[in-house]
Amino acid sequence: xxxxxxxxxxxxxxxxxxxxxxxxxxxxxxxxxxxxxxxxxxxxxxxxxxxxxxxxxxxxxxxxxxxxxxxxxxxxxxxxxxxxxxxxxxxxxxxxxxxxxxxxxxxxxxxxxxxxxxxxxxxxxxxxxxxxxxxxxxxxxxxxxxxxxxxxxxxxxxxxxxxxxxxxxxxxxxxxxxxxxxxxxxxxxxxxxxxxxxxxxxxxxxxxxxxxxxxxxxxxxxxxxxxxxxxxxxxxxxxxxxxxxxxxxxxxxxxxxxxxxxxxxxxxxxxxxxxxxxxxxxxxxxxxxxxxxxxxxxxxxxxxxxxxxxxxxxxxxxxxxxxxxxxxxxxxxxxxxxxxxxxxxxxxxxxxxxxxxxxxxxxxxxxxxxxxxxxxxxxxxxxxxxxxx
Length: 389
What we know:
Elements: H1 2-22, E1 31-32, E2 38-39, E3 46-50, E4 65-69, E5 71-79, E6 88-90, E7 96-99, E8 108-117, E9 122-130, E10 136-138, E11 140-143, E12 149-150, E13 156-160, H2 167-172, E14 174-178, E15 184-190, E16 193-198, E17 207-212, E18 218-220, E19 223-225, E20 229-235, E21 239-244, E22 249-254, E23 257-263, E24 279-282, E25 285-294, E26 299-309, E27 316-319, E28 337-339, H3 341-350, E29 356-360, H4 379-384
Parallel strand pairs: 10-19, 12-20, 21-29, 27-28
Antiparallel strand pairs: 1-2, 3-4, 4-7, 5-8, 6-7, 8-9, 11-13, 13-16, 14-17, 15-16, 17-20, 18-19, 21-22, 22-23, 24-29, 25-26, 26-27
Pathway: Cell wall biogenesis; peptidoglycan biosynthesis
Protein name: Lipoprotein-anchoring transpeptidase ErfK/SrfK
GO biological process, one term: cell wall organization
């Protein structure tokens, strides 16, 4: 009897197992338990994001991209500190969302995205990520400024508040656009300054736009670009000053033809340090009144009119009526180009910042200590200053 009862219990257990199996259903992929409650299947839709949830040190310049497979996004919200929403746009096909504004350094952002799958089941993505926090944020400035008109030799200059180590990465973030094809190159004049100049003078009367996409650029040594900077300016008429110092004349050309010619006195020929230096300079600034001091040569608080600076080494084109007897006859200045008052005013009124001033005939080479020296180098030398090879 004991043996028969054991067999009966085993058979009963097997029957219970078969009964349980008979109470299950796989119709439409939904399982039903014995107590009548549905067991949830995972939705087909899958939402992913870049940067990923829980990412650390995410870049600030790359856009956030949220994508879905096997479904369509129905809602995407990315918020920063203070629950401020990050601007972005959902693609027309509903498959992706892309942010349209840069992120902040050292910030935490939160995802809240929803989608409806091809199986009509909802899916969602939640979580946070953090952006990188630089050891130092470095600001840059860009010249020329917006909406100015400059001469055909005007360089574009980007200056940084501290030294740049990753110069090639910075150059790749700089873009120059014009309405004509221009051959030009960036060149590093110091650890904190990179300039762009064309091979030849800019064509007259064109527009130039510059984008320096520096936010998020690794400058090296833990420093990153603080912000993007842009500018848009115009190149004016072609006006070039040409001076051969022994001739005591200053010639002004417009569009390649002589426009004006003035008698002048240049730097003292007998003393090389007082020569007006050779080279191609640009008009850097204009002052109706200027005060000149040079303790080395014993003069201070000398007031002159209609002064156009052409070098940070101290050279100007300016009025010197007190030297009228030498103008057109003798070179006796301390390096400046002296003009009669009426001529200085006439030239001053015609000049704009960025006009080239070409000087030859003296024994003094151009001063390369100035931060505006772009045209003192020949083209192969200038190109060698680029960090992008």
